[in-house]
């Protein structure tokens, strides 16, 4: 293949959106042809209703609204390239396609701007590997996290299935922090030998890349939860004995733990709650735990992504740090017609962490019991 860049040259600019790439396709693409963007419909309007709560101040991110899902597509990128640990997507001529390559900056504590992308700041002159065939790309910077694995990777696999475009191999990120990714691939019948893992030395140019749009750019439409249910619910461990009321403990986590968890459990156990640490369960068992539960309570955390597998009407009580309110699991509860309740907790006094999203919390027992009473009446 002819190459407009020397193999060690860094990327030559940015396409901020797939629309920018599509508009310029054919101008300077050289021998490559067949590039296109295939729209993907996520369904009807999503409606989000207010949480049930005793709190007098409802955080703005939990305000009711309606949204028509938008922005879904599959990009067919002849001669496309993939680079680095997160699997950044580059065009045939070597320009970063930022919309498909968004990156979180740990030092900045936020998603990075296009000009801050590691492909410009950490270019390591990797050896370019040429590959024939179509590579389907499911890379995402946060896929090591359980929520992001479920909601930013697997629905995009469902998009590939729905599109029916044949591909030779999948490209995904490695997952060193848990077995859930490997377990999900086994459920879906995806052999590890068919997966290319991104890494710091990755630099591939494929005959063609097939890249589904990022779910976060479409604000996680209800279709994402439906897709997860269709993919994974049939594989739940239905024989597992499961309690009707579960409390999700974060005592094995490094952050956002409940300091007075023993007192919380003492007040909840007479009401039939059983504490569980989701780290102790396989993916199939986690799916069953949530699918069988009547009431689920716990602090904000990635394990609540399993709300995707609950039955409609299941009651959910989410406990937030008052300074760190994120609508993710309220959103999933709305997708699934769950009855969602919430309450605030306070940061732990004397904590060495000064970031609300990581700080341990102290739960007001009386307010928790009052919220539970409200849920039981509902």
Given the helix and strand composition, which structural class is it?
A: alpha/beta
Termini Cα gap: 65 Å
- The tally of beta strands, per DSSP, is 20
Largest sheet: 8 strands, mixed
**Proportion of residues in helical segments:** 10-25%
Q: Secondary-structure element sequence?
A: EHEEEEEEEEEHEHEHEEHEHEHEEHEEH
Question: Given the structure, what is the number of helices?
Answer: 9
- What's the gyration radius in Å? 22 Å
Average residue pLDDT: 93
Estimated share of beta-strand residues: 15-25%
Detail the poorly predicted runs: none
The coarse overall form would be globular
Produce a short descriptive summary.
The chain has 378 residues and is of the alpha/beta class.
Can you tell me about this structure?
The chain is α/β, with parallel strands linked by helices and 378 residues long. It is 23% helix and 23% strand. The protein has helices at 18-24, 118-121, 146-163, 180-187, 222-232, 261-268, 283-292, 328-335, 365-377; strands spanning 14-15, 36-39, 46-48, 65-67, 73-78, 81-83, 88-90, 96-97, 104-105, 110-111, 129-137, 169-172, 195-197, 203-212, 245-248, 273-276, 295-299, 315-321, 339-347, 361-362. The strands form five sheets. Strands 2, 5, 6, 7, 11, 12, 13 and 14 form an eight-stranded mixed sheet that branches. Helix 3 packs across helix 5. The chain starts with 13 loop residues before the first strand and ends with a helix.
């Amino acid at each position: 293949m002819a190459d407009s860049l020397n193999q060690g040259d860094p990327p030559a600019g940015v396409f901020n959106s797939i629309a920018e790439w599509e508009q310029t396709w054919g101008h300077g693409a050289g021998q490559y042809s067949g590039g296109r963007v295939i729209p993907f419909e996520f369904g009807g309007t999503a409606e989000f209703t207010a949480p049930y709560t005793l709190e007098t101040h409802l955080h703005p991110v939990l305000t009711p609204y309606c949204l028509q899902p938008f922005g879904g597509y599959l990009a067919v990128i002849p001669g496309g390239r993939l680079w680095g640990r997160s699997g950044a997507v580059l065009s045939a001529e070597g320009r970063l396609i930022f919309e498909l390559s968004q990156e979180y900056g740990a030092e900045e504590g936020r998603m990075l701007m296009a000009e801050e992308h590691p492909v410009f700041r950490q270019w390591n002159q990797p050896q370019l590997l040429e590959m024939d065939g179509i590579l389907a790309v499911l890379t995402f910077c946060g896929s090591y996290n359980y929520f992001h694995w479920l909601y930013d990777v697997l629905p995009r696999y469902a998009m590939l299935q729905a599109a029916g475009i044949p591909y030779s191999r999948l490209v995904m990120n490695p997952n060193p922090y848990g077995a859930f990714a490997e377990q999900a691939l086994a459920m879906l019948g995806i052999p590890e030998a068919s997966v290319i893992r991104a890494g710091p030395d990755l630099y591939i140019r494929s005959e063609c890349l097939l890249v589904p749009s990022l779910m976060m750019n479409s604000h996680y439409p209800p279709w994402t939860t439906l897709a997860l249910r269709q993919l994974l619910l049939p594989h739940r461990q239905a024989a597992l004995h499961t309690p009707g009321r579960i409390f999700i403990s974060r005592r094995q986590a490094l952050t956002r733990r409940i300091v007075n968890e023993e007192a919380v459990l003492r007040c909840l156990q007479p009401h039939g709650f059983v504490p569980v640490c989701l780290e102790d369960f396989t993916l199939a068992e986690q799916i069953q735990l949530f699918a069988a539960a009547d009431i689920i309570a716990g602090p904000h955390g990635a394990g609540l992504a399993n709300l995707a597998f609950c039955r409609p009407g299941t009651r959910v009580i989410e406990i937030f740090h008052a300074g760190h309110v994120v609508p993710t699991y309220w959103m999933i509860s709305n997708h699934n017609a769950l009855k969602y309740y919430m309450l605030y907790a306070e940061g732990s006094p004397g904590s060495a962490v000064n970031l609300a999203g990581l700080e341990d919390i102290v739960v007001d027992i009386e307010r928790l019991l009052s919220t539970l009473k409200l849920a039981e009446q509902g």
